[in-house]
Amino acid sequence: MLRKGIATNDNFTNFEARFIGSLSVVTVIIALSGVVINIFLGFDANLIILPLIAAIIFTGTYFWAKCQKYFFLLKVFVNVLSIVFVNFFWYYNYGSHGPAPYFFVIISSLIIFIWQKKQLFIVYGILIINILILFYLDYANPEITANYKSNGTRITDVYTGCIMYGAFIFVLVNNARKSLMSEYEKAKRSDNLKTAFLANMSHEIRTPMNGILGFSELLDDDELTPEQRREYINIINERGRHLMAIINDILDIAKIDSNQLDVSKVTFDLHHLLDDILLSYKNEQKQNGKEHIKIILEKAVDEEKNFITSDDLRLRQILNNLLSNALKFTKTGFIKFGYTIQGNKLEFFVQDTGKGIAKEKQPIIFERFRQEEETYTRQFGGTGLGLSISRGLVELLGGDIRFDSEEGKGSTFFFTIPYNPSREVSAMYEKKDPVKKEYDFSDKLVLIVEDEDYNSELLRFYLKETKARLLFAKDGKIAVDLCRSNPSISIIIMDIQLPVMNGLDATMEIRKFRQDIPIIALSAYVYEDDKKRYFDAGISDFIPKPVKSEKLKEIMAKYLS
To answer: Predicted confidence band at 400 (pLDDT cuts at 50, 70, 90)?
Structure first.
């Protein structure tokens, strides 16, 4: 049970190294003590030279364990060396008459603690065979091992060996206890963080949901004026965006953890991006009643040199996270943001005159689900994920992030990204005037496979102006049957999670008799592994939920034109 607790530690190699290092030190001390005791007891020269050699060799294993290189070879070396020394010790130190059996128990403990699975059974099996051979020699040929010169010498040697055995066991158990206590404290902290996170998430999700559901209910009131109705709809939209931001934060941190967050580098106008962010936060100022706070933007280069190559969306996300925090925690004064050029890097900064971060809380500020205020009486909301996500994104972009903060005076966050100046903007980033396109699918039959009625109704509303003819299926099996009986179906909009037969199984069935039909997947499962499964099953394209009307029609047009 003890070993199992340690073996589950992700840093088990560190424990092994610490254990072997500590055991090496104790072995050196005991070996040198053994030299002195054996001289005092008047033992043969072999029993003086043997522990002296052991002390020299185990001094080397201590430094080997510290560098943690070729660690498997170290484990093999320590085990082989220990067994060889104990065999010599058994032979020269009166076999089972002396303290040798104690040291076989020590080696057993050593093997259990530094080997795992099949290796453990192999090494332990070798030790057992060794002990059985010595047992046979001791039992069948008692003359091999000589007797002590006197009973007093035997008692002194055996009890000295007992003390040495106790010292080894002390080191072993103490290391195990420290490792287990460390893991226990980590697990306890993790459990407390999880509990706090769940409570925080419940609050953060229920708060916008309360606004959405409450004002949706108020829209049923026939006595509402058009102005009130528009105001309530705006509140519902704003709360919906807030809820979506929370969900995106949770998804982003999961993607960062699983190395599935993509970086898409384009050439874009940095100043245009910063001006756009400034404008959006000036609007947010008004919404939060903080017009008295001055927001300042500082740029390092002139307008002709402001094109860079990086991931504009991730850069915007980082700045949004930092500026949102600055606006949230600043009551008076100013917020300043911008960038400077530091050699081959751009260093961005966000400075505020807010409450600052307490010194004792600064080490945890980038940890996920952690916030400076972690009590039910906290003044400021938030998921505790923004800074953790920002650090992950900065590292993905090839930079680093740091901060300076003094409680009561404010904070300044700095982060860097590689500076890749460019002269031309990417075509995909060119600013275009938004034009609402009109789509005509009047000659097309669209199969919508969706088990939730409200989602089906939403898709019906989105496609109403396209004049497309619509068929609906509530599960994958019905969708397969409709496709088989209606060869005129032009395109399929397929939900993935469906009753009876899921969307992927339905797609694979449809592909057996309709290879050419476009199938567009709608799903809340958005990881790269999920997308790969979709395309492997025969999905033509993918739209993540929540579905946007223009995006849906744009992708449909790509396959129906």
So the answer is: very high
Listed in sequence order, the residues at least 6 apart from 265 whose beta carbon sits closer than 8 Å to its beta carbon are 309, 310, 311
- Strand pairing report for 266-269 and 307-310: antiparallel
> CA torsion, points 253, 259, 261, 264, in degrees to nearest 10?
150
DSSP one-letter string for 403-426:
EEEETTTEEEEEEEEE--B-SS--
* CA angle 100–104–105, rounded 5-degree value: 115
Helix (H) or strand (E) holding 342: strand 334-342
Query: Which residue, among 490, 494, 499, has the nearest Cα to 525 in the 3D structure?
Result: 494
| Confidence (pLDDT) at 463 | 92
The predicted-structure confidence for 440-451, as pLDDT tens digits, reads as follows: 999 999 999 998
Token pair of 151, please? 């009973």
Handedness of CA 296, 300, 302, 304 (dihedral sign): negative
Residues 6+ apart with CB under 8 A from 189: none
pLDDT digits (tens, 9 = 90+) for 185-234: 877 877 776 776 676 667 667 777 887 888 888 888 888 888 888 888 88
Residue in this structure with the two tokens 């199984």, named with its chain if needed:
505
Q: What is the four-CA torsion angle of 551, 555, 560, 561, rounded to 10 degrees?
A: 90
